[in-house]
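Quick start: read one record
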Amino acid sequence: MIAAHLPALQIAIPLIAAPICLLLRRESLAWAWATFISWVVFALAWMMLEKTLTGGAFNYELGGWEAPWGIEYQVDAVNAFILLIVAAIGAIVMPYARASVNREIPEHKRGLFYTAYLLCLTGLLGITITGDAFNVFVFLEVSSLSSYALIAMGRDPKALTAAFQYLIMGTIGATFILIGIGLMYQMTGTLNMADLAKRLPAVEDSRPVLAAFAFFIVGVCLKLALFPLHLWLPNAYAYAPSVVTAFLAATATKVSVYVLYRFVFTIFGQSFSFDVIPLESILLVLSLAGIFAASTVAIFQTNVKRLLAYSSVAQIGYIMLGVALVTVAGLTASILHIFNHAIMKGALFLCMGAVYYQIGSVKIEDMNGIGKKMPFTMFAFVIAGLGLIGVPLTVGFISKWYLITAVLERGWWPVAVLILLSSLLAVIYIWRVVEAAYFKSGDDEVVVEEAPLSMLIPIYVLTGASVYFGIETSLPVETAAEAARQLLGIGG
């Protein structure tokens, strides 16, 4: 019985559970409740991925109303994989959140924090699972509004400014997406994604559809922080509470990339998106520019969270570069890097949260000699950092290997050379942190203890995953390949 309603439960459970966090007066109860719900959501996501890999894609009609009249949830290998990533990160960071939230967020706001967290999780899952274009916008607003609140809870007064900047940019992006969806509805009379895919080819030469595509692409690229539409991201990540930064960095932009996949390849179609519109060239140029510009800026940052934020902009460049290839190999590399980057960046931001927990700062100069005082935390940072660089036996190497292979398959060897060169920039900015932690002496009179076990375990779960999936690649690679074939309409 439960198996038949998995898609609805995936959204309903965290949505209903969110306000209960406010009713639970004690902070410890709110945390325990949010943690329990997060792990339930993860279990549901895992069950749905298994179901799609063994039995194929399936639909769920809400209220028994048949599509396109009613809203349906569509689950295939593409969104089941993204659902698993979001749910897994959401579950892993919650045990970590207890100590971190207690240190960074005032007691009277903690119930609100867990409520906003579950709402944000609900929104991200809803965007991924829905088969209705307008519902994408609705869930996008649910996740965005809760994200603004979560970011604003940071201790630094700049967190409010960062949240406001994100609100302005996010609202522009969401408005553009809504205009695009509205124009598509005007021309087709439907909001169901499968129905849109059938009806759009008949009117694809019309100006409203061309305008809809333009509005949508700009809006979603703003949401996923593709260079140069990334200006909201560095401050949002730098000044948000540590748990929020780790969660959003590993999930929010990845879900926006999924929305781009779904609309570009499934709804508008490959021929329209890349033949009628020169999206391939646009994405190629912006991706490469983002990789080098953001990596270069990261080198000169003094705040490590801000450094990692610019690194995320560069990593989004790698993901979008795979999309620009418009091949199964390229899309496989793109989807695979969503998974791998979520693991690496989640681990890195959790490490910085542990450092902030102990010394109240994540500035490089304040981390001199911390490698000896927090050996387990900084060792995990080094391992995850090696993944970001793309060292063999880490997930980062697997991503870049598949991406370079896909680029060479297209005959774009200069691009392959640029990808290799960009890895050297990652070496520089990761080395700056490692150098301060291990090769510079700090104040020996200041006693700094290792992070609590409740924080170290989630850090090492993600760090271990970055090594494990760098060696045992079958699950992410095969799932990503199947998802890529489905997006391009190629039989397995």
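The two ends are 30 Å apart (CA to CA).
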